[in-house]
Amino acid sequence: MSAAIQKNYFLLRRLHSLSGIIPVGAFFLIHMLLNSRAAQSPDQYQWVPDFLDQIPYLVYIEIGGILLPILFHAVLGVVIAVKGEPNVTRPQHGWAENWGYTFQRITGVLLFILIAVHLWQTWWVHTRIKLDNALNGTHTEFEIYSLMNGIFVNAGSGGAVSYNWLWLAIYALFVLAAAWHFGNGIYNFACKWGFSTSRQSQRFALTLGLGIGAIGMVMGFASIWGLTFAPWATAVH
Amino acid sequence: MAQTVRVKVRRQDEPGAKSYWQEFDVPYTQGMNALTCLQEIQKNPVTVSGQAVAPVVWESACLEEVCGACSMRINGIPRQGCSFLVLDPQKPLTLEPMSKFPVVRDLIIDRSRMFQALLDSHSWIDIDGTHDLGPGPRQSPKDQSWMYVLSRCMTCGCCLDACPQVNEKSDFVGASVISQVRLFNAHPSGKMHADKRLDYLMQPGGIVDCGNAQNCVKVCPKEIPLTQSIAEMGKQTLAYGFKRFASKPDLEM
User: Fold this and answer.
1) What is the spatial distance between Cα B208 and Cα A15, in angstroms, rounded to a whole number?
2) Is the Cβ–Cβ distance between B107 and B97 less than 8 Å?
3) pLDDT tens, B147-164?
4) B135 CA to chain A: closest CA distance, Å?
5) Which of A174, B129, B203, B215 has the lowest CB atom count within 10 Å?
6) What is the domain-level CATH number for residue B189?
7) Domain A3-235: which topology?
8) How far B89 CA sits from the closest chain A CA (Å)?
């Protein structure tokens, strides 16, 4: 460990904890909320990237405000995860909070990979179109609904469709892992920062965290439904 | 024929040596505990296969769960041998040394790191001087009662053994010393050295290395609210961190 990291270790770990709530956790909730418009209609869903593109300096906000914080949270998180030795499999050590500790690390590493894949599939496609438009003076539209729909639904011949169950499973796992990691993370945050000291308040923080995570999960599943199983999801083919 | 209890012991001949299991049958007596099982083995150190072996060694002192010396993993859980009663002779008893400390021999482990942590964290009250310092400030009975609970810590090491964050890859000091810092920082005289103890907790391996698995509080034989202490110290170190960074020039001496 270099001297600078050693000296600022407390700060770094506290920033890791904070970044999980703001901006990463907050982003997760807003992202799920906006995505759930896919369960209303493709037009409602298209409103999301159209709206975001109105924001000035968007790419800098995206990189500085969310991409770098996620990277920081993920890299330090992996360092933390490999330094721990989960022991739920030891005899009589299978307590709920100990499982929570273990899942937090498993989902964290999983989310690192899934977020990278997700950014490649969506954000990078969108950003590349915007770059092309800016450089070449073209006006290519970014159609978010058909992009996401194309991941989950395969168009067959003569209007027949089939579902891409592998990607559906990956995205369902993605939503579950993110919702859990954020929900349990709220509980960890409340304990570590001393907001919840007593046993009752720690229990309350866990309930609150998992409740918020569950809201994110429901909105995430609604988004997947809107992109895959809604009447308009197959009508586009 | 008298009833016997099957005792499985994880043994190790010397520091760094490979461990191995041996099984013994010891006569059952009502009200026996894990340590009386070991005493029986000492009387007749013959394994179930009839092999005469060196008696199993262990460490113990008070025999009433206040010294912390006989900590070992009994049926997988870190606890005190003296207070673990053998209630059912049918159930085999598994004894292992605690896993997070260097083994000296058999069930004897070296808890030096915990005592070193108490020294490094200034976990004591300074009352000695070159002259009589007079009586200290008074404490309310209410404070005395909750601080008494923290003072019951006997540095037995169960909280470290159960903690997934305490391992060879990590420097984490464990729950007990964090709780002791809370105790001494709450003490009216101890408060005078509060910053020193908080500085200790804010080092790598300190409070932020807690992973909130909450195993410590479940295995603590003295029922110390360790996770509450960790949360409380999380709050105190944070407040102190702000103060140290932003508004306390006298700390720059």
Assistant:
1) 11
2) yes
3) 999 999 999 999 999 999
4) 32
5) B129
6) 1.10.1060.10
7) 3 helical TM bundles of succinate and fumarate reductases (1.20.1300)
8) 20
